[in-house]
Specification:
Number of helices: 5
Structural class: mainly alpha
Helix content: over 70%
Order of helices and strands: HHHHH
Shape: elongated
Distance between the termini: 23 Å
Length: 132
Amino acid sequence: MTRAGQMLDTYPGDFGFDAEALAECLAACQECAQTCTACADACLAEDQVADLRSCITHNLNCAAVCAATTAVLSRQTGYDSDVTRAVLQACLTACTACGDECARHGEMGMEHCRVCAEACRRCAQACRALLG
């Protein structure tokens, strides 16, 4: 069980979501934020860094949105479904765009981008599950 799951187990109130799906989304968002940050850094270390500007921007945007989504989802007291849905949709959008960009570079042999694309796809799926 993740730390997020443990914290949800201790929460004294009700959630706006299924606790397992919420824990999965929190874990996926945290992992994606870290992975995207590391991928941006790895892109900066590549010889052809100028060709990776779009990828780096997608990585940094996705990391920021995933971090914000984690923060919003971690606060269930005074739950606001409109804000939560908006941040989940933004995270889904950012993860999809970043995942697509990284997948292109991963197909060209950039292993860090391949790993990042996988993390983005997992996070997008977790956000989609909560939105559904």
